[in-house]
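Exercise 7 asks you to align residues with tokens for two separate proteins.
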Amino acid sequence: MTVKVLIPTPLQKFTNNQATLECDGSSISDLLEALETSCPGIKARLCDEQGHPRRFLNFYVNSEDIRFLEGTKTALQDGDEVSIVPAVAGG
């Protein structure tokens, strides 16, 4: 199944400056592996040593935060859109 992935600008150096990728995966975890295969080095920027998304990155599936779904086990359907969004803080 094909999923559209929106890549934030700071990570586009791993995607040949592409802001959008089409990847296969039945879950966020599978999608992360597919991203690493097509864009070597990107997974280390997205995940910690245990394979969990880094704290300063938010992943959304069709505008739903995966933290409120099933995390990296969140199932994906053909045509879903996954957004990777850097956290913003300030005051």
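Second protein for Exercise 7:
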Amino acid sequence: MLMRGGTSKGAYFLAGDLPADPSVRKELLLRVMGSPDPRQIDGIGGAHPLTSKVAVVSASPAPEADVDYLFLQVSVAEAQVSDRQNCGNLLAGVGPFAVERGLVPAGDARTSVRIRMLNTGDLATASFPTPGGRVSYTGGAKISGVPGTAAPVVIEFPQGAGPLLPTGRAVDLVGGTPVTCVDNGMPTVLIAASGLRITGYEDPADLEQNQDLRTRLHELRLAAGELMGLGDVRTTTVPKLTLLAPPRNGGAVTTRTFIPVRCHTSIGVLGAASVAAGLRIPGSVGEGIAQLPSAGSQGGLVRIEHPTGFLDIETEIATGPPPVARRTAVVRTARKLFDGTVFPRPAAETEAAPHP
């Protein structure tokens, strides 16, 4: 099933319909999505990291979850499939997909699905309308980066098991640049845009073409990955890097997020959750940049501005020490785009004769 989840788009599969061997599954998904190829012209990928994603869903054996969700990021131009991170946008479609496929029975008016994210072991609960026992994708919820409106999918995240500050510090100095390393569902490095000699309001395409910035961000990411206990992150998409600037449109902060070298045209759900939590930590790099709803407030709505609008995160932080994210919630939308059969390109390609 092809679905839009939040501001991403991906292929949703039942786990039983894919090979169990990860290496065989990787090879199949590369052929399904059309990678490696910058246009993904021979597959169903959309030629961008945000539209080259896969969700693998199955009934969960865990008593605290209804379904298991494995997120796979399929590289566009390289033959890589990564399971090193979650995706909070595709997460918005997991509950509806589980009901559509009969993994979870629908309620008469509304259904809640408890989801275990296999990439990290974290849990989430997605609630969405199911009038008459059928998933409804029509509604009045609007999210930035998606045209029109759709039915709201409310996603709540319980307190994570890991530390909110993986390094144990509100600020680390990496190569002379102050950063805050935070993980509230997505390992994220917060950096003041001004510290990198940019405004933080630039167009994503312009930032991607700034070679000096790209080089500096690469250095920061490698060093921060080691500090956060992620090891060598050269071949992974985490940690994300989020540049912070003062808000321009009534939000708490303006952001530019890198995934890891492409600049996100919006911001990921779990990345935004980490940003919102990081802004509430006393002494973080967000102090003096972010404009939170009230001084000293450690709970409530945080509006994260991004290149195509904003994303609202409900977050509650206990400052500790150590600081802990007690509650995180967000409203997303999802829509079923296509339900059918995908035909991957052949596994063993042979040179075809020219068409007469």
